[in-house]
Amino acid sequence: MGVVKAQSRIRSSGRGSGVLPLLPFFLFTGFFLIWPVVAVTLRSFKGNTNEWTLANYRPILHSGPYLHAFMVSLKLSLITALIGSLLGAFFAYVIVKYARGKFGAVVDSISAVFANSGGVPLAFMFVAAFGTEGIVTKVLKDLGWDIYAGHFTIFSFTGVVMVYSFFQVPLMVLVFKPAIAGLRREWEEASISLGASAFTYWRRVGIPILIPSFVGAFFLLFAGGFSAYATARALTVGTVPLVPIIIGTLVDGNVISDQTNLGDSLAVGMIVVATIVMAGYIWAQRRAAKWRS
Amino acid sequence: MKRFSLKWPLVISSSVLAFLIFIVPLYGAAVYSFKGNGGKGHSWVNYQWLIHQDGFYPSLITSLKLAVLAALLTLALMVPTMVYLNLKGQKYKSLVDFLCILPLIIPVVSLAIGAQVAMPKILQNSEYELVFFFVIIALPYTYRALDTSLQTIALKTLVEASRSLGASWTSTIIRVIVPAIRSGITGALFLTFALSIGEYTITSLLHWETFPTWTVVAGQQNILGAIAISVFSFVGAIALLSVIALLPKRSALRVEVDE
Questions:
Q1: Any CB–CB contact under 8 A between B226 and chain A?
Q2: Is the dihedral of CA B214, B207, A278, B147 positive or negative?
Q3: Predicted pLDDT of residue A151
Q4: What is the number of domains present in chain A?
Q5: Which of A170, B47, B197, B229 is such that its CA lies 20 to 30 A from the CA of A41?
Q6: Hey, which CATH number is domain B52-246, 1.10.3720.10, 3.30.420.40, 2.60.40.1120, 1.20.1290.10?
Q7: Across the interface, do B24 and A136 touch by the CB < 8 Å criterion?
């Protein structure tokens, strides 16, 4: 329908640009994306008897298990985003530089699979490899390193960090590769013809240009790690207190009667954190775009 | 000169690192999944166990069905939207761009809670509600895929030529633009399908049973079986994506973009 109407508009006005053809898109995202967020935000300010209140936010702001969960979630995202962005940037550089053609395309799609595998299969795979009876655990033990001698288990915070890095690194490769590929040959040639060494080129030109993209990608990884749910859920079954896991438990019905809408306020808390992080991402993207025109 | 000497140390160290980070866990899991009964010997027993579990086929079929529907809905919604946006609706582009990046910003957990609050009962009582949220979750990726390929074709020229030859808008989109941006469409289709078929968060929080949520439940009884299915889905996804990556992407209608 929208298309037909747009046709007559375009015919009559020549260069018209009505909003009508975009209506299906705006209605769809409005109903399935914006409205749920607005609704949960509104309900997070309501009490059990539907009165307006800030009570749902009290448990988060006062020290206690919920504030602690936010801290653990932030720490997890920070560490895995750091590991992911540094290692991923290194891989991205090597791939751009030395993997071309069909091999490059396959590396791309493998990265895409690994990056989007932040799910249940990943958790099970790591249990198989690094669990108490895991294959890697046994091999390392035979080599004289018992990884379970200390406090380590795959179900702990450190375990979650390992598993998350598994999808953070390839995500960084996907996001950061275009930035490295966008470094113009001319810039390198120009600085070298002006007498710069390769090291000077990277220190004075390459790295300064890449920094905004790097920071942007770091924020993206941070947001991804902060919101990830499936992997941690399947791996830890609640032993590591993360905000998404706690929300999941609340939704599954283990709710204390006076905290009906606590899940809502936690969900809004997550949106707030994610928004701040993504504002950083958008800011960094803008700076990075300067070099691309 | 200096760069040349750096090549092999870089390639070798990154290959070793990639091997340790990615191949070792995958290989470990694969070996584990072929363990026989009681952990002895090697066999397909875990894979057979899985197939014979209650709910294997129903949940797999549910997942396939929802993923196909999500991919189709994505195309129906996004192809006309993106074409119009690149053709006439430039001034709305930043708004659409923003809406399409929102699913990356809003944690899926929060979206799921919101869906429970906001969706009408009739939708919440049907598993098809998931289709709409799968489309939403895939938006950031579909937007990029379609936008990139639309920018590599001479969209305006194609549309003007087709319209001046008397084609309607519908047939312009279906018979001219769609073939020209085939690679972007394949990409968007496949991404939506892959994301939908593996989606766990929203599905489990809205209490539906699809293949991923079924695996978690089944895995609680038999961890070997769960590992088997994890390895299977991983290797399957890599194989499928690699095949798609190697498909010829050139289109006759493509124009060379000057650097």
A1: yes
A2: positive
A3: 75
A4: 1
A5: B197
A6: 1.10.3720.10
A7: yes
Question: Which of A43-52, A77-86, B162-171 shows the lowest mean pLDDT across its residues?
Answer: A43-52
Domain encompassing residue A93: 59-292
Q: Is residue A4 part of a domain?
A: no
Distance CA A163, CA B230 (A): 14
- Residues in chain B, how many? 259
Tell me if chain B has a CB within 8 Å of the CB of A108: yes
Per the structure block, which two tokens stand in for B157? 């020229």
Number of C-beta neighbours around residue B5 at 10 A: 8
Of residues A4 and B157, more confidence is placed in: B157
Give the C-alpha separation, A150 to A53, whole Å: 47
Does B222 contact chain A (CB < 8 Å)?
Answer: no
Rg (CA), chain B: 23
The rounded distance, in Å, linking the Cα atoms of A188 and A191 is 5
| Residue A114 confidence (pLDDT) | 76
Query: B89 and chain A: CB distance < 8 Å anywhere?
Result: yes
pLDDT band at A181; cut points 50, 70, 90:
confident
Query: A52 CA to chain B: closest CA distance, Å?
Result: 16
Comparing CA positions, the residue from B109, B120, B73, B114 lying closest to residue B201 is: B109
Asked if B113 and A129 come within 8 Å (Cβ–Cβ), the reply is no
pLDDT-based confidence at residue B39 (cuts at 50, 70, 90): low
Q: Which of residues 109-138 of A touch B (CB under 8 A)?
A: 109-110, 112-114, 116-117, 119-130, 133-136
Which B residues 143-162 touch A at CB under 8 Å? none
A-B Cβ pairs (cutoff 8 Å, strict): 263
